[in-house]
Amino acid sequence: MMTAAATGSAKEGHACLSLPLALTVGDPAGIGLDITIAAWARRRAAPLPPFVLLACPDTAAARARQLDAPCEIGIVEDLSHFRDLPAEMLPVLPVAMKAPVVAGRPD
Asked: pTM value?
């Protein structure tokens, strides 16, 4: 995983125009990650607006491996710097999980 460091802020008055959509996964054990990873894998065929996934990076990476989907995770520490990551990385704003996540087993 790679980190996009927070080194500044968006320009005054234009912050909302330069920020990505914030996408949550819902229940981490549900299909939200599956849908997000599948969409990310097809982003060149069906262009997506810029977005940052709010999720546990380890959980997202594990789900991508389970799905055998090419999805490298990039950690974003500040939404205004999500474009600092290489274009092939799925930008993830880390959200801590209180317990391990098992796909298909919500708790």
From this structure: 0.75
